[in-house]
Design a protein that fits this description.
about 45% helix; 4-stranded antiparallel beta sheet; 2 domains
Length: about 130
């Protein structure tokens, strides 16, 4: 009888500790070595309230007809979750970078990037991806 009671208590303790241990593991997996939280792409996607296609339509409405999306991504920037579009515009060098809120579809920012600025941004992103 004592053995059964001890086993019951031990089992209850293990079950009670499991969620806490799982949460700590998940939290550790989501932080980088400096302890800063780094959201995963999937979690950003689950937070987005508008579709990428809707955001693309908004972004293209801000540039000249005939413009084409060169690249796009969902990211956290300027304090919110945005779809970032690099758009080539006929007759211009470089790209228009348009950030559209993934929460409400508003334009967060629009900036022209010269080829030199694009190259610097690509180098910065490559360096960030190399970090563990």
């Amino acid at each position: 009888m004592k053995l059964a009671r001890i086993l019951t208590l031990v089992t209850a303790a293990v079950v009670a500790a499991s969620p806490a241990a799982a949460q700590q593991t998940v939290a550790a997996a989501k932080t980088n070595p400096q302890g800063k939280s780094k959201p995963k792409k999937q979690s950003l996607k689950s937070l987005a309230k508008i579709s990428k296609d809707s955001a693309r339509t908004v972004a293209l409405s801000k540039v000249a007809a005939g413009s084409k999306v060169k690249s796009s991504e969902l990211e956290r920037e300027k304090g919110t979750i945005v779809y970032s579009f690099d758009i080539t515009v006929p007759g211009q060098t470089g790209v228009e970078e348009i950030l559209v809120s993934a929460l409400d579809g508003s334009v967060v920012s629009q900036e022209h990037e010269t080829p030199k600025m694009e190259k610097a941004e690509a180098a910065k992103e490559k360096a960030e991806k190399k970090k563990p």
